[in-house]
Write a structure and sequence with these properties.
The chain has about 425 residues and is α/β, with parallel strands linked by helices. Helix content is about 35%, strand content about 20%. Bound molecules: zinc ion. Keywords: Signal.
């Protein structure tokens, strides 16, 4: 069969040429988002050739034979980025998932989660730890890249790294059950370096570490014990850097966040109650804060008692006030929702909350798309509609600069030049 088709191609160069020419598509809509300028333009057009954007603006070339997709009263914009996801977590059983579900079962559920996120317009994600499923996220990422399953382009970390008795170590449970940690346990610097090397060997793109936890807000006083020393985090950052990787930390409060920022991590996730010195350093070094408000709201709305709801609401209000201080201090932000414990595909809510708590819609879009692309190490490939960038394009009703809620109703999704949702 192979020989026959090669022979045909040799005999018929025109057919070969047609085969090699990439599929060309023109997207047309009422508006297009210019993220860098923070405004929408009218109308909007994107010319896609194969997997890449060829032109984007108010008018593009319409090559002969190009497929034209008319998207009506919508805004064309880059695919959304979620810089803090958990494909391996799902609603209802976060704490016991590692006990109740096998890694193969969790991997299939993660594949379904990836599809939901993509259909909601998230074409790129940074998955912040499988929480007990080891490096199964590498398999999901690779299956997406091979086109076997639909999903966003992924940066994955394998398990997060955590200390004995730390944030994810199933502390306080019946010791006779010998529950495994939901993270990779590493106490000494040597253990941390070994774990980073092992995860890299298995295909991790970056390192996720739990630096603080668990949080406690009592009578207006917020605390969260640190887990690794500044020296340990510095060693971790250096080891990651050695192989072109980076470290992201789960961190709130001091001194943990200060240690992480001094060590030069790529992002501080959750980022609640930072000192002014920490905020200053984050601005100077370009270290992103990823607030993850959506998860807090979901937990506040799904508690076991009115007292718990009250406590959660207080935490939300505290973090919202801290977020305003961070904006005023010039801290750079990326957008991450912590989706998993709340339903996959609903995480655009994070951007509504960032606007609700004081950031302009244009700044939220800049944080999500331009900063998100930097944080995911795809600065020159995603997050903007520019020639040569991957054709990850979505269309939303209305104008997201005027009403950020447009992002919660994504109508059209293209990833890598392929129409996923129409
Ligand atoms: Zn998380």
């Amino acid at each position: 069969m192979k020989i026959a088709s090669v022979t045909f191609a040799l005999l018929c160069p025109a057919a070969l040429l047609a085969q090699q020419q990439p599929h060309t598509v023109v997207l047309h809509a009422a508006r297009i988002l210019d993220v860098a300028a923070g405004k929408t333009l009218t109308p909007g057009e994107v010319l896609v050739e194969g997997t890449r954007i060829k032109e984007a603006g108010t008018h593009v070339t319409h090559p002969a034979g190009a497929e034209v997709i008319e998207l009506g009263d919508t805004t064309l914009m880059p695919g959304l980025i979620d810089a803090h996801t958990h494909l391996f977590l799902h609603v209802g059983n976060e704490a016991n998932q590692t006990v109740d579900e096998s890694v193969p079962e969790r991997t299939l559920i993660a594949a379904d989660a990836a599809r939901h996120d993509l259909l909601a317009g998230f074409t790129a994600e940074r998955d912040m730890g499988t929480e007990g499923a080891g490096c199964a996220d590498v398999a999901v990422r690779n299956a997406i890249n091979r086109g076997l399953i639909p999903g966003p382009r992924m940066r994955v970390s394998c398990n997060a790294i955590d200390i004995t008795g730390g944030h994810e170590d199933n502390s306080g449970k019946n010791p006779e059950q010998h529950l495994l940690s939901n993270a990779d346990r590493a106490d000494s610097t040597d253990e941390v370096l070994h774990t980073i090397r092992e995860q890299r060997k298995q295909g991790a793109d970056f390192v996720k570490m739990y630096e603080t936890g668990r949080d406690n807000l009592h009578d207006g006083v917020f605390t969260s014990p640190y887990q690794y020393t500044q020296e340990q985090l510095t060693a971790a950052v250096a080891e990651a850097k050695r192989t072109g990787s980076r470290v992201a930390v789960h961190a709130t409060a001091e001194p943990g966040t200060g240690y992480a920022v001094a060590a030069g991590v790529a992002s501080v996730d959750h980022a609640d109650f930072l000192s002014s010195e920490t905020m200053k350093q984050m601005k100077e070094k370009g270290i992103f804060a990823v607030p993850t408000f959506a998860i807090s709201e979901y937990f506040a709305e799904h508690t076991e008692s009115p007292t718990a709801t009250q406590r959660r609401r207080e935490s939300e209000a505290f973090h919202a006030a801290e977020f305003k201080k961070q904006i005023a201090a010039g801290v750079p932000f990326a957008v991450g929702s912590d989706v998993g414990p709340f339903p996959h595909g609903t995480q655009a809510r994070e951007m509504e909350l960032m606007v609700k708590y004081g950031m302009s819609a244009a700044d939220v879009l800049h944080a999500d798309l331009i900063n998100g692309a930097k944080l995911l190490d795809w600065e020159n490939s995603i997050g903007q509609l520019k020639p040569g960038f991957f054709a990850d394009v979505i269309a939303v009703p209305g104008d997201p600069i005027k009403d950020i809620s447009a992002l919660t109703h994504v109508q059209f999704v293209m990833k890598n030049g392929e129409v996923i949702k129409r």
